[in-house]
User: Fold this.
Amino acid sequence: MGDGWRHRIVIESAPVQWSTGELPLPTCVAGENACPPDDVGGPHGYALFLEIIADRDHEHHEDMVRWIGGVFDRKGFDLNRINRDWKGTKKRRQ
Assistant:
């Protein structure tokens, strides 16, 4: 999480499952916006990226769309995917 990003995370407590001795798996209950692409260049690079993909006439528009792999929805947030990815991470650790 380098490059000067700032994140706001709120942690709500959950009951521990003492009978199994395991801590509950974290669950994301809400979020906003899509994650910026990897290696976009921090907040300033992300702002430039958004500007370029919004302007079809920009000389680097097609390069950025190709780099991101197609459409990028900056407001997109997939709660189910995040929780599914976290569960997959736990399975790989076992």
Summary: Residues 79-93 form the longest helix (15 residues). The chain is about 40% helix and 0% strand. The chain has a mean pLDDT of 83.
